[in-house]
């Protein structure tokens, strides 16, 4: 049996990519159904990716001693908080509102939404480690040597989180956008 856990899969299984075959990513923006909801959804995903990128760039700058500890700690606090809060809100809305409605539109991909919901739980478990590493960075910002070590550990967390989140967001887009392009979004609010 195929391991579909977030940490193990390279993409959605073919059985869940049936609508993606009909609506390939390359043509999404040219589709007349590419409306405000899809754009909003993709923009939120882009925001999460950008925040992680900023955290990685800032951490690299600190590790290379190209930024001050205070500036770095403030950046981690700001972007880390935005990231965790925003991701929790985004996932809660998807799990409670969008996923049930989208899953009902096409039985062939219904299991994909169960998989995405499980991804959210997997990401939540990893976010606890991310928050702990971020807190350590913020709390050690007064001692440069300790901060350098903490930032190195945080960078490792960021690399892992980026990989997991990108896999999840890509799979979510590959499942959701084709559903909306095929069936519309009028009943989604």
Key descriptive features of the protein:
189 residues, mainly alpha, 5 helices, 73% helix, elongated
Descriptive notes:
The protein has 189 residues and is mainly alpha-helical. The chain is built from five helices and no strands. Helix 2 (36-63) packs antiparallel against helix 5.
Helix run count: 5
Report, as a whole number of angstroms, the end-to-end distance. Answer: 37 Å
Low-confidence stretches: none
What structural class is derived from the secondary structure elements? mainly alpha
Largest sheet: none
Helix content: over 70%
Task: Describe the structure concisely.
It is built from five helices and no strands. The chain has helices at 18-22, 36-63, 69-103, 110-139, 144-183.
């Amino acid at each position: 049996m195929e391991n579909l856990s977030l940490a193990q899969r390279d993409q959605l299984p073919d059985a869940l990519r049936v609508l993606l075959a009909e609506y390939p990513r390359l043509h999404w923006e040219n589709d007349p159904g590419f409306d405000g909801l899809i754009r909003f959804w993709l923009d939120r995903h882009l925001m999460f990716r950008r925040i992680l990128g900023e955290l990685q760039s800032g951490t690299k700058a600190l590790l290379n001693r190209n930024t001050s500890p205070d500036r770095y700690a403030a950046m981690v606090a700001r972007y880390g908080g935005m990231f965790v809060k925003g991701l929790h809100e985004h996932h809660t809305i998807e799990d409670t509102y969008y996923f049930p409605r989208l899953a009902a539109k096409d039985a062939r991909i219904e299991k994909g939404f169960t998989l995405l919901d499980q991804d959210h739980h997997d990401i939540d478990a990893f976010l606890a480690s991310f928050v702990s590493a971020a807190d350590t960075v913020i709390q050690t910002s007064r001692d440069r040597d300790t901060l350098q070590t903490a930032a190195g550990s945080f960078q490792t967390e960021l690399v892992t989180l980026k990989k997991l989140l990108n896999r999840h967001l890509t799979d979510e887009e590959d499942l959701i956008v084709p559903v909306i392009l095929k069936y519309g979004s009028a009943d989604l609010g």
